[in-house]
Amino acid sequence: MKKVWLLGFGFFSISITWSLYNAFVPFFLEKYVHSVALISFMMTIDNYFALFLQPWIGNRSDRTATRFGRRMPYLMIGMPLAAVLTMLIPFHSGLFTLLLFMMLMNLAMSLYSSPTVALMPDITPEPKRTRANGLINFMGGAGSILAFGAGSYLYNMSPALPFAAAGLITLLCLFVVSRFIKEDRDGVNTTAADAEAGSGSERELLPEGGIVPPGRPARISLKKQLDRTTVWLLAAIFFWFVAYQGVETLFTLYGKHHLGLSEQAASFSLAFFSLAFVIFAIPSGWLGGQIGKKNIIILGVCGLMAVFALVGLAENVLLLRGLLLLGGMFWACININSYPYVVATGNEESIGTRTGIYYLVSSLAAITSPPLLGLLIDLTDYSILFYAATVSMAFALVCLLLMKGRFRSSEQDSL
Predict the structure, then answer these.
(1) Burial of 224 (0-12, 13-18, 19+ CB in 10 A)
(2) Neighbour count for residue 384 (Cβ, 10 Å)
(3) CA torsion 102→352→145→302, rounded to 10°?
(4) Burial of 406 by CB count in 10 Å (0-12 exposed, 13-18 middle, 19+ buried)?
(5) In what helix (H) or strand (E) does residue 204 lie, and over which residues does it extend?
(6) What distance lies between CA 77 and its chain's CA centroid?
(7) Beta 204-205 vs 211-212: how paired, if at all?
(8) How many of the other CB atoms lie within 10 Å of CB of 52?
């Protein structure tokens, strides 16, 4: 698991960047745009890139062959670009330059997100993937805590400081991951003979241990990946991300305008959600391996649905933060187990493709949710936010209960 911890630095950088982006960029947009729906739409730019690019890049990385490996080239290009563009966002001179920096930064993030996620199952045997996902999400959650906690104080000093810190951390994390993760050495299906025979520039290693000549990559059909069980699972993922993405994107505005919190206090409140997520990330992965990923996901969906309903009634900041602590725990139950669950529905050679499909669905949710919830807020008020999220979680629960079939998994995942 040492390599998984090191890979977690990649997730740490992704998480800290997106957390800062979602917490503070709405305040930049608010200076130029007064419609919550329009602000929310602009905040979904990244998901349009993810919608089209990440499935393609995930599939492409399955078939990439270089001396650095299948996934690492995408990290080596995307992470430095994302770091620089993240640092540029606070230095916009108007709405046009703000949107330009946002689009370019999102494009850079899309280049390496799927390959980074796909590295986890690449270097982890299938029975250990749920626990490994807990470890790397522990790192990701730590990034969110740092973003919402320390980032809120840095933002109070200067809006540019948290973005500068995120960019530097991304560069540091790239150094750690590229220095200590070697795909030809650490891949679970790579043999010593394969490693000695040559690098990825000479031959492409298949998950079964076979080799295809350069120029003849394995072809993977997207259509064949979508069996009935997978479709219902993806539908559930869509609905719980509609709830989560809408709340994450609009929460700081909700805290500022509905609860009367300062910008710093609103962003700091999200640290409680991330703190609980970090604390429960590893236990939820262990529980998923012991009693089944689906059972833990259902527990998380039911719990988060109840928390969202209660948050809508909370007017006291202490009660709000207490509920966010509970919510982070239940979100860990969902998020830690969902990606390994999607991977378990396919074959080893489709890991990158299924990672892209997972991002495709979550991106569709993120595209749909903030503008829709923002429009509801424009038509009513901010109190509708958590009630709408509750309804979306209920739809996710229905989809989970409609799933049938059995996964390819050595863990205790009975359906």
Answers:
(1) exposed
(2) 17
(3) 110
(4) exposed
(5) strand 204-205
(6) 19
(7) antiparallel
(8) 12
Q: Round to whole Å and give the CA distance between 382 and 396.
A: 23
Dihedral (Cα; 76, 80, 83, 86), 10-degree rounding? -100
Phi, psi dihedral angles at 205 (to 5 degrees): -80, 130
What's the predicted TM-score (pTM) here? 0.67
Backbone angles phi, psi at 204, to 5 degrees: -110, 125
Phi and psi at residue 262, to the nearest 5°? -70, 165
Structure tokens at 194: 């394969």
Q: How far is CA 14 from CA 99, 140, 196, 226, 382, in A?
A: 20, 7, 33, 28, 28
pLDDT tens per residue across span 232-279: 889 999 999 999 988 888 888 888 888 888 878 888 888 898 889 888
- Ranked by mean pLDDT, which of 134-138, 225-229, 230-234, 394-398 comes out on top? 394-398
255 to 28, 61, 104: CA distances (angstroms): 16, 40, 29
In the numeric block, which tokens belong to residue 209? 């241990």
Q: How far apart are CA 358 and CA 114, in angstroms?
A: 9
Beta bridge partners of 211: 205
Residue 383's CB: how many other CB atoms inside 10 A?
Answer: 12
Cα–Cα dist 63/77, whole Å: 17
Quickly tell me which residue has 């109070």 as its tokens: 156
> Residues 186, 124: contact at Cβ < 8 Å?
no
Q: How far apart are CA 210 and CA 83, in angstroms?
A: 37
Q: Which of 228, 229, 188 is nearest to 207 (CA)?
A: 188
Q: Rounded to whole angstroms, how far apart are CA atoms 19 and 83?
A: 14
Alpha helix stretches (DSSP H) within 31-159: 36-42, 45-62, 72-88, 95-123, 129-148, 150-157
Nearest of 64, 140, 76, 69 to residue 111 by alpha carbon: 76
How far from 235 is each of 65, 137, 191, 398, CA to CA, in Å?
Answer: 33, 22, 37, 10
pLDDT of residue 220: 57
Contact 45, 354 (CB under 8 A): no
Query: How long a stretch of residues is the chain?
Result: 415
pLDDT at 346 over 50: yes
At residue 281, the pLDDT reads: 83
In degrees, to the nearest 5, what angle opens at C-alpha 315 toward C-alphas 314 and 319?
55
pLDDT at 82 over 90: yes
